[in-house]
Amino acid sequence: MKVRSCCAWPALVLLMALMLAIGCAAPAPAPAEANESPPLSLPAGEAGVLRIAEGGPPLRRPSLNAEGVNQPQKLELPSIRVETDIVPIGWYVVQQPNGTQVSEWEVADSAAGWHKNSALPGQGGNVVLSGHNNIAGAVFRKLYTMKPGDDAYVWAGGQRIAYRVEEVMILEEKGASLDQRRDNAKWIQPYDDDRLTLVSCWPETDNTHRVIVVAKRVEE
Fold first, then answer.
1. d(CA 170, CA 106)
2. Which regions of the chain are under pLDDT 70?
3. CB-based contact 72:155 (threshold 8 Å)
4. Residue 101: domain span
5. Alpha carbons 113 and 90: distance in angstroms, whole number
6. Is residue 93 part of a domain?
7. Are 109 and 102 in contact (CB under 8 A)?
8. Looking at the domain assignment, is residue 9 inside a domain?
9. What is the pLDDT of residue 135?
10. Which of 11, 50, 78, 172 has its CA 20 to 30 A from that of 33?
11. 181 within 8 A of 170, measured Cβ to Cβ
12. In sequence order, what DSSP letters do the residues of 95-136 get, joined into one string?
């Protein structure tokens, strides 16, 4: 019995050492969104190509606490009869066949998605919202029909913030060069003025192009 006990001690010490080593190991990597830069291209809306936002962490209405009070909650585009909720969206990392990893945008399901790295309404900068045009609610199906002078309203923090459309663009995306796609994506980058940028796909039956609507804030 003593012999067995003496022989068991080294094994027990080794087991404890292994457990300690595991407990002190480096923590698991943070989610891709925390470590990777935002995508260098515009969001898409093709089923099976980009993950719909509901496939990631649960999407909730922005909380009305001290941190979330200014997050956008609702969008109204009277000229195309759109009134929709807004949910926060981010991006995720996918591995390409050649082994490289790229970041791609989530796209909100049956809502407009607020890009979490863009500005908060009413605080200056570029507020970016994107949505589908022919699947998953198709909230931005008629976005391409908006015209300069049309109004857009965003609710945030209990206030309605007004914008007026200045530009409507249709940009080639599918099949375009990498340089062209990156140039297209400049519209969702930070800007110094107080603006709202809406993004979707075009045409209604396909997703080869992107629609960009740029509106500037106006006083009501």
1. 21
2. 1-36, 44-69
3. yes
4. 32-218
5. 9
6. yes
7. no
8. no
9. 81
10. 172
11. no
12. E-TTS-EEEEE-B-SSSEEEETTSPPTTSSEEEEEE--SSST
What is the model's pLDDT at position 6?
38
- Structure confidence at residue 205 (pLDDT): 85
Q: Is residue 195 part of a domain?
A: yes
Residue that is written with structure tokens 């796209």 in the block: 107
CATH number at residue 153: 2.40.260.10
For 81, 94, 196, the CA distances from 156, given in Å and listed in that order, are 20, 32, 13
Which residues fall within 8 angstroms of residue 71, CB to CB, at 6 or more apart?
A: 62, 63, 88, 114, 120, 156
Give residue 168's pLDDT. Answer: 97
Closest CA to 200 of 42, 50, 79, 83: 42
pLDDT of 134: 81
Q: How many CB atoms lie under 10 A from the CB of residue 116? A: 14
pTM value? 0.73
Burial class (CB in 10 A: 0-12, 13-18, 19+), 6: exposed
Predicted pLDDT of residue 181: 86
Domain count, the chain: 1
192: tokens are: 């110094």
Give the tokens for residue 170: 């249709």
